[in-house]
Structures are given as structure tokens and as C-alpha cells.
Amino acid sequence: MSRQFNELKASELYCPTCRTCGPVREKALSTSGSPVIELLCARCRTVVGRHTTTEDKSIGGKLARLAGRLFPRSK
Ligand SMILES: [Zn+2]
Hints:
This protein is α+β, with helices and mostly antiparallel strands.
């Protein structure tokens, strides 16, 4: 159990077009309602997944997440 999953949870996904796992890019879609984030294959731009961020529908939520990244919890 020496493996650590830091921030690599969704950095690579299986792409049916490339037939292999590869890096993905997040693309936010501005739809009416809850925001949708599409995960595109970085090579062929095939949509390999998508998820909605129903929790962060407010700007405050986004700022909170950004703040969490910029200012990680100090020990
Ligand atoms: Zn691909």
C-alpha cells in the first residue's frame, strides 16, 4: 500500500477512439441550469466523460474551491 493518489483521480481516462488511457482536459459548458464539465481526450478531443457540479453552482463555491487550492491546509 505504498501508492498514493494525490490529485490523479481524474487526470487520465480511457478513450475509445485512442483505445488507451490518456490525459483528459476539462471543458466547462455554460448551459442553462447546473454547469456541466466535459472531459475531453487531450489527443483527439473525444468526450470521454462528463460530470455536473451541482454543488458549486454559486460563485462562492468556486471561490471556496480555488481558495482551497491556493491556500492548502497548513499543518
Ligand atoms: Zn482519444
